[in-house]
Amino acid sequence: MVKIAPSILSADFAAMGDAVREMERAGADLIHVDVMDGHFVPNLTFGPPMVSAIRPHTRLPLDVHLMVEDPGWLVPLFIRAGADYVTVHEEGTPHLHRVVTAIREGGAKAGVALNPATPLAMVEDILEELDMVLLMSVNPGFGGQSFIPKALERVERLKAMIETRGLSTLIEVDGGVTAGNADQLKRAGADILVAGSAVFGAPDRPKAIRELRG
Ligand SMILES: O=C(CO)[C@@H](O)[C@H](O)COP(=O)(O)O
Ligand SMILES: [Co+2]
Q1: 0.90 exceeded by pTM
Q2: Which annotated residues bind a divalent metal cation (predicted)?
Q3: pLDDT tens string 122-138
Q4: Domain ranges across the chain
Q5: Helices marked H in 132-204
Q6: Are residues 169 and 127 in contact, defined by beta-carbon separation less than 8 angstroms?
Q7: Ligand 1: distance of its center to the CA of 72 in Å?
Q8: What is the pLDDT of residues 56-101, one digit of tens each?
Q9: How does strand 31-36 pair with strand 62-67?
């Protein structure tokens, strides 16, 4: 069954402990933490202290999405803070193999994220080392943007690549995910759907999670 990862980028920043507790009760599978550095993307969010602050409030895995230029130095800090998944962007990571190895050696699961215009070929030679590939379905930097439909076909092609090689790499889709496109994404092969505004903007959040899961 597809997993749902609400993004706390759309939560109330003054009440993050409440937000993650609420998401666990509402049936979420992971908590997605969007880290933005003001360089790789034109927005600034939070660092390792946010992860250590929310860690005691949930047993759900913390799925840290680093939208950061050259993020290698941050990896041990986020793992120490309690991250379960650490995902770095291919476009911002000059020594991708080194960073992915450091994530795994640090005891976390390693993900690589691709922007909407980055060819899937950029993860082809490192796929065996990855627990997850995050396909962006918006340009990173902000919540609440519209889904880029081309992402569906990219999920299908990546799924085929993973299956052909007999791997169990997960596909996470991030950006503009709604109840209206979740079914198609699942059929295309998505394993985890990130949803910010579709969950936190809904009047009934548990229902929104159920509808995304289908
Ligand atoms: O990484 C990002 C944005 O850069 C995402 O995780 C967004 O936070 C998802 O928000 P919605 O598009 O679901 O509102
Ligand atoms: Co994200």
Answers
A1: yes
A2: 32, 34, 65, 174
A3: 999 999 999 999 999 99
A4: 3-213
A5: 150-164, 179-188, 197-200
A6: yes
A7: 22
A8: 999 999 999 999 999 999 999 999 999 999 999 999 999 999 999 9
A9: parallel
CATH 3.20.20.70 is held by the domain 3-213: yes
The answer to whether 162 and 128 have CB atoms below 8 angstroms apart is no
Which residue has the least CA distance to atom 4 on ligand 1? 140
Cα–Cα distance, 114 to 90 (Å, whole number):
6
| Count of helices and strands (H, E) across the chain | 9, 8
Tokens found for residue 59 = 């047993």
Whether the Cβ atoms of residue 93 and residue 71 lie closer than 8 Å to each other: yes
Query: Ligand 1 centroid vs 163 CA: distance in angstroms?
Result: 27
Tokens of 186: 């699942």
Rounded Cα–Cα distance for residues 145 and 180 (Å)? 14
